């Protein structure tokens, strides 16, 4: 994922983070994961996002906020 020029913001930051996260997972060859393992796990996460209509860890901020109160 390319960095944005100064002053430009994503219209949907959560989607941008998810795309960057998945792209990072797809480059995990340095951890000696096979391509089949990576693609299966990425597909699982994409199906979960589609099913739940929420991004992974989207509720984490709520949990951390409650923990601080």
C-alpha termini separation: 35 Å
The counted number of beta strands is: 0
Radius of gyration: 15 Å
Largest beta-sheet characterization: none
Number of helices: 3
Provide the low-confidence segments as ranges. none
Average per-residue pLDDT, rounded, comes to: 79
Structural class: mainly alpha
The fraction of residues assigned to DSSP E strands is: under 5%
Shape: globular
Describe the protein.
Helices cover 59% and strands 0% of the residues. It has helices at 13-26, 35-52, 60-68. The chain is globular. The chain starts with 12 loop residues before the first helix and ends with a helix.
What keywords describe this structure?
69 residues; mainly alpha; globular
Describe the protein's topology.
Elements: H1 13-26, H2 35-52, H3 60-68
């Amino acid at each position: 994922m390319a960095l944005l020029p100064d002053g430009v913001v994503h219209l949907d930051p959560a989607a941008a983070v998810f795309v960057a996260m998945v792209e990072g997972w797809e480059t995990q060859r340095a951890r000696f994961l096979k391509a089949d393992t990576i693609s299966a796990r990425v597909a699982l996460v994409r199906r979960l996002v589609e099913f739940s209509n929420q991004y992974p860890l989207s509720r984490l901020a709520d949990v951390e906020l409650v923990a601080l109160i």
